[in-house]
Amino acid sequence: MLSSLSIKNFALIEQLEMNFSNQFSIITGETGAGKSILLGALGLVLGKRADLTSLKDKEQKCVIEAQFQISKYNLQDFFATNDLDYEDTTIIRREILPSGKSRAFVNDSPVNLTELQDLSEYLLDIHSQHQTQELSNEAYQIEILDAIANHQNLLVDYKQNLAKYKSVKIELKKIHAEKEALSKEQDYNSFLLEELLSANLKSDEQEELESIFEKLNNVEFIKESLDKSLAVANEEQIGIIQNLKEVKISLQKISGLSSEFKDLFERVSSTLIEFEDISIELSGQAEKLVNDPEKLDLVNQKLQTIYSLQKKHQVESIAELLIIQNDLDSKLVLVSDLENQIQKLENQLNESVLVLDKIASEIHQNRSKAVPVLVTQITEILTQLGMPNARFQFEINQTQNYLPSGKDEVQLLFSANKGTDFGLLKKVASGGEMSRIMLAVKAILANYSKLPTIIFDEIDTGVSGEIAHKMGDIMKEMSNKMQVFAITHLPQIAAKGNQHYKVFKSSEGESTISELKLLSQNERVVEIAEMLSGKDISDSALNHAKSLLN
Predict the structure, then answer these.
(1) Quick check: is 406 in a domain?
(2) CB distance 404 to 438 below 8 Å
(3) Which intervals of the chain form a coiled coil (predicted)?
């Protein structure tokens, strides 16, 4: 409940502090006295946007502070989820600075407007004539039925499973798109991979093949060079080996004479050994050298395949071709993996559908059972409010779609008079009828759910006399279960309140300010008498006012 309200420097209000009870409170005042300012201040506390026009003194900040008793609202989880300090007595403060910036606090912790708006839904419901149009909203009609059906656990379960269903559906759509994109390239990628695999590439074979190709392609020239080299090395009379042997023999004769000669002898000996080894290697290479046109053709074909693949893939080495080969192979494997993932997700989706359908069916049955209960109670209340022939009909149809609160689509049909056909509520009900229907709905909901503090802003517009009495009785009855405020121009309703506040204007010098005052019993008599007869209060009006209050 709203236990106190403090307003500083807002619109026509310089300073206002007021405490409230948990019962039925009345707020009255002349048109333009400031009732809308009071609601505007509460709107800021609830998270509505503000601007500099809200400041009475543009040089000073505006501060609005509301204190709520929330111990019965079970809001601990909300506070924990939003990382706020929970207090049974929770204080919401809104500040508007001269710079135009706005700040909001819950129990002195800064919050953004979204968090404040979410919290306010649990605390305060300002119900104006404009909000009566909510009755025409299908989502609100479903909320009413759900309150009567009292199946909040089912709705929570449904919404959790719906979130999972949507998550899986999004993931499935994403993977389908990936698979489709890959599938478009799959045939080409498969062709490229097969081409690379057929080439049977090895990372270091290009250099080896190029070497083999050069040998086979120049076999005659190589053979001629090797034979000439062997001839020069091994000629019996003038060959290099023979000459080196003679040099070695000559140096051997003098090697014992000095270390220098010995060193030269050893060097020539080493050279002779090395050259003899070279000669043997030349001979071996000459023997291995074979003119093999067939092998030359095979090596050339393999090299041309490699060069062609390098040109196609715009690379310069087999190592790079092998990287591309692995990448293509991964893409083809990925398509297969995606198909497995799609199958798995489709199985999950089918399971979710079964669960959602089961829960939605239970919700539908509960709503169908709630309809006659709700219709009976509304018609009983409307009979008291001067609508004895009002009839309601709910059409609940299960769709194939998973909607936020089930699979039901609801239409509320209404007939105000005997002999008239049912029509959509929003099309056939007048403004006054809508106000009375909404009051009946709120009165019923007060018995089924913990509604927050409710402020009825001139919901009684268009009614008078005995109907006004009945509306007052209904609101007073609601106040036994919740805190109720009524902003009204009707004395019949004003007299029903446990407390009566008056909004009025006063002048101080060149300034006009709005004030809110809790009326005493005598002041209430005067106020209600004035509501009955105007400024010139007659004795009969005073007596009538006393009668209403008694």
Answers:
(1) no
(2) no
(3) 148-185, 328-362
For the record, the structure tokens of 485 come out as 């405020």
Q: What is the DSSP letter of 73?
A: S
Question: In this structure, what DSSP letter does residue 57 have?
Answer: S
Last residue of a domain, one of 279, 304, 337: 337
Instruction: Give the CATH number, domain containing residue 513.
Output: 3.40.50.300
Cβ-in-10-Å burial (0-12, 13-18, 19+) of 229 comes to: middle
In a domain, 371, yes or no: no
As a whole number of angstroms, the distance between CA 306 and CA 303 comes to 5
- For residues 116 and 183, membership in a common domain is answered with no
**Does residue 193 surpass a pLDDT of 70?**
no
Are 277 and 291 within 8 A, CB to CB? no
What distance in Å separates the CA atoms of residue 528 and residue 492, rounded to the nearest whole number?
9
Q: How far apart are CA 234 and CA 228, in angstroms?
A: 10
pLDDT value for 183: 66
What pLDDT, in 10s, does the model give residues 234-287?
776 778 877 888 778 787 888 888 888 888 888 988 888 888 888 888 887 777
The distance of Cα 17 from the centroid of its chain, to the nearest Å, equals 40
State which amino acid sits at residue 529: A
Mark residue 150 as left, alpha or beta (left: phi above 0; alpha: psi -120 to 50; beta: remaining). left
Give the range of the structural domain holding residue 2, as residue numbers without chain letter.
Answer: 1-123+452-519
Positive or negative: CA dihedral 35, 36, 39, 40? negative
Distant-in-sequence, close-in-space partners of 192: CB < 8 Å, separation ≥ 6: 324, 328
Q: In the beta sheet, which residues pair with residue 502? A: 28, 517
Same domain, 207 and 286: yes
Average per-residue pLDDT in the chain? 85
Q: Report if pTM > 0.70.
A: no
411's tokens: 């239409």
In 276-425, beta strands by DSSP E: 391-403, 406-415, 423-424
DSSP codes joined into one string, 136-199: G-HHHHHHHHHHHHT-HHHHHHHHHHHHHHHHHHHHHHHHHHHHHHHHHHHHHHHHHHHHHHHH
Q: pLDDT digit string (tens) for 430-481?
A: 877 888 888 899 999 888 877 788 999 888 777 778 888 999 999 999 998 8
Residue 99 one-letter amino acid:
S
Distances (CA, A) of 534 to 350, 492, 497, 538, 544: 70, 15, 20, 9, 13
Those residues with Cβ within 8 angstroms of residue 476's Cβ, 6 or more apart along the chain or in another chain: 24, 484, 496, 497
Q: How many other C-beta atoms lie within 10 A of the C-beta of residue 414?
A: 22
CB count within 10 Å of CB 288 equals 8
Best-predicted range by mean pLDDT among 58-67, 69-78, 279-288, 363-372? 363-372
Q: How high is the pLDDT of residue 282?
A: 80
